[in-house]
Each structure stands twice: as C-alpha cells, then as structure tokens.
Amino acid sequence: RRLQSRQTELLAAPTDSLHREHAIRALERLHHAVDFGGGDDAAPDIRPFLTGVMMEALTENPPLMFDILAQLDPASPDTDAWRRLTQAWLTGRWADMEPVLQTLADDEQTEPPHKALACYWQGYSRRANGDSTQAVAIYSRGLDYFADFIPLHVARGLASLVQNQHQDALQDFSRAIDRKPAEAGSQWAVAYHARG
Hints:
The chain is mainly alpha-helical. It is 76% helix and 0% strand.
C-alpha cells in the first residue's frame, strides 16, 4: 500500500517528467519484486532490485537517489553503503565511491549491466584523480560485464587519449559510433566528436 500511495503521490507531483517517469518505473519494479517475494510471511530480497535502481539513478537521475534513501531503513548496512555512495557523488569525492562500487561489481547478485555501471563510475573516479592507466583497466573490466555499454567505450577512449594511445581510443570511439544514436544518447555525439 505504501508503494501504491507513493506512486499516486508522484503522479500528482509538480516535478519534471523524466524524474517522475523514472521514479514511477522504479516503484513499479519494486512493487513487482515485493509481490513475488514469497508472500507475506517472507521478507523479499530487494537488494538486486535496489542495486539496479540506485546505479541507474546515479547515472540517469541523481535526485531519485535521495528519494530512495529517504525510504530505506536507516539501520541497514546497505542503506549506509548507499548513503556513502550518494554523499561521495554529491560532494565530488570520487575516491570515496570506490569501495562501494567495487563491492557492487564483485557481488554475484549484481546484474552485468549494473556491474558495468559500477565500473564506469569507478573508472571515472580514477580518471578524475589523474590515473588514466587504472581507469582504462577498470573500463575494460566493465566491458567484460557488458560489451555494448556505450558510455564505457567513450570513457575508455577518452582515457586512452590521455595516454596517447590514439589507436585504442579510435577503436573505442568507432565502437560507440557503430551503435544507433537512439541507443547511445549524448555519448554518441561525444564519440563522434572525439573520433573526428
């Protein structure tokens, strides 16, 4: 009932449509996870769901992270990890994100696309701190999880450029460009511009 109430509240809220759509989709997925979680007697394991929604929110809709955090049990260790990740993102302390992201990438329950997102942010953290060599390695690991993740190709290409590995960068930008722009979003434009 609480989820349905929150969904109705979001539909009526004067917020931008992207945030509203993402939040409603997340609540629908959570509702589905709870409904099929084993009945009223067993508490459903929503951790895989939460990982997916939080990683997507981190990348696509950061304000949703705060809304989700407000709904989580403050005493849960998972809540503490998400809070640390969110605070690090908010303050730009990228290195503080890495332990949580590493745990997510190593977790067997994390789905491959979300492992790739964790690697994307981990690599971003390394690149922001001037370690392009390690960033390339992390981006490559992310592509092992999900080879079609265009932002990883673009990010690895940019990190390769910093290392003067122009051929590697060109290959990554070309892989990103080979995808349809509708699937790639703004990353396609970055790859196209960087490749020249």
